[in-house]
Design goal:
single chain; 85 residues; mainly alpha; 5 helices
Length: 85
Amino acid sequence: MQTNEFEKRVYTPQFSAPVSAAVKRLAWSMGKPMTKAIESLVLALPAIVDPAKICLSCQDMSDCKACIFCRPITAEDKTALLAAL
């Protein structure tokens, strides 16, 4: 199994107790482990926030092709991403 570049740079963020509890509850509602729930939420962000705003403020231009914010979001993409939540 080959890992991609993002999997090599994984770190564990420290959440406050209320945020950790919220993530746990979100994960339960999604029927996923917390790590997979967070991943699903992050992958859905381009359907919720303006990807152009993210690109304009980005400070890491090393691999734009792999960035989830560096592509147009179609209506079908948005529906599918939001349905996954």
